[in-house]
Amino acid sequence: MIVSSSSAVRVAVVGAAGRMGGQTCAAVEAAEDLELVARIGAGDDVAAVVRESGAQVAVDFSVPAATEANVHAALDAGADVVVGTTGWDDDSRGRVAEHLERLAAAGDGPGPGVLIAPNFGLSAVLAMTFAARAARYFESAEVVELHHPDKVDAPSGTARHTAAAIAAARAEAGLEPSPDATQNGWDARGADVDGVRVHAVRLRGLVAHEEILFGNAGEQLTIRQDSFDRASFMPGVLLAVREVGSRPGLTVGLENVLDLS
Ligand code: NAP
Predict the structure, then answer these.
(1) Do 79 and 58 contact (CB within 8 A), yes or no?
(2) Which of 63, 158, 202, 230 to mutate to test the pocket of ligand 1 (most atoms within 8 A of CB)?
(3) In UniProt terms, what function does this protein have (predicted)?
(4) Whole-number mean pLDDT of the chain?
(5) pLDDT tens digit string along 184-197?
(6) In a 10 Å sphere around its CB, with 0-12 CB exposed, 13-18 middle and 19+ buried, how is residue 179 labelled?
(7) Closest Cα to atom 11, ligand 1: which residue?
(8) Which residues constitute the domain of residue 148?
């Protein structure tokens, strides 16, 4: 559904009827420098609505099965894209990066931008950043993510992103794999993300939480973050909406937009 148009940054929200999409619509409407021009839901033609609404930025909070197609459609319609939907892997990110390169090569300027953020919460982004920094100093590392039981994908994108960052830091430091004598019962050891074990808990009453566990002989470091309310994601979402237009190409992770150096 096309809502309206004006001179502020025009934003379309994909998955607008969902929990995150609804919050995003409200946050965009409350921001003076942004204007909500379209609410897009399942069954809508994303490219057509983005084009007709004149949206400059499309924000996708839909479902893992639809998000990649939505991003390609929004790019074809001329919008920059902010993605909060989880479920992205190297292949899907690679296809979006290729699409962006094609668009950049076909135009005069640097081309559009796509910002995929597995987590827009400041506490989660800081936890991931601190975990990546700590990773090289510990023999063992595992990630536990805990979410509400209505979440459809597991492990969470945040946990995958955290584990991948830990794995990269361990590889760079030349660490061996975390010690693990398991010979059977691998199902109980969680998912393997680049060699880092990730465990997913689904429990009524939870929202979004993550624990990163590091161990050495005789010591342990636990980094924990808790998101209690979806409102906590909105400052990060709005920051991404404001920044994506000046970041051509693919950016993965809100930490790249925050000054965390
Ligand atoms: P939700 O309440 O289930 O909302 C998803 C919405 O997407 C629904 O309104 C759904 O419509 C709609 N939808 C389904 N297929 C679609 C399509 N092809 N095109 C457009 N819209 C479509 O889910 P949520 O809790 O808002 O979460 C959405 C996503 O954001 C999930 O992947 C979640 O893990 C992620 N998330 C990310 C962050 C972050 O910080 N990055 C934070 C929280 C959640 P119907 O109900 O009609 O099917």
Answers:
(1) yes
(2) 63
(3) Catalyzes the conversion of 4-hydroxy-tetrahydrodipicolinate (HTPA) to tetrahydrodipicolinate.
(4) 95
(5) 999 999 999 999 99
(6) exposed
(7) 42
(8) 122-227
In the set 147, 161, 199, 209, the catalytic residue is 147
Same domain assignment for residues 97 and 108: yes
Instruction: Give nearest CA residue, ligand 1 atom 32.
Output: 85
**Annotation marks residue 72 as catalytic:** no
252 vs 255: CA distance, rounded Å:
8
Q: CA-CA distance, 80 to 77, in Å (whole number)?
A: 9
Encoded tokens for 25: 């619509």
DSSP assigned state of 246: G
In a domain, 3, yes or no: no
| Residues within a 6 A CB radius of ligand 1 | 14-15, 17-21, 40-42, 61-64, 66, 70, 84-86, 117-121, 151, 233
DSSP 8-state code for residue 178? P
Are 149 and 198 found together in one domain?
A: yes
Helix boundaries (H) for the chain: 19-30, 46-53, 64-76, 90-106, 122-134, 157-173, 234-243
List residues forming the annotated binding site for NAD(+): 15-20, 84-86, 117-120
Domain CATH for 200: 3.30.360.10
The pLDDT assigned to 3 comes to 56
Confidence category of residue 4, pLDDT binned at 50, 70, 90: low
Annotation says 147 is catalytic: yes
Q: What is the mean pLDDT of residues 139-156?
A: 96
On whether both 166 and 114 belong to a single domain, the answer is no
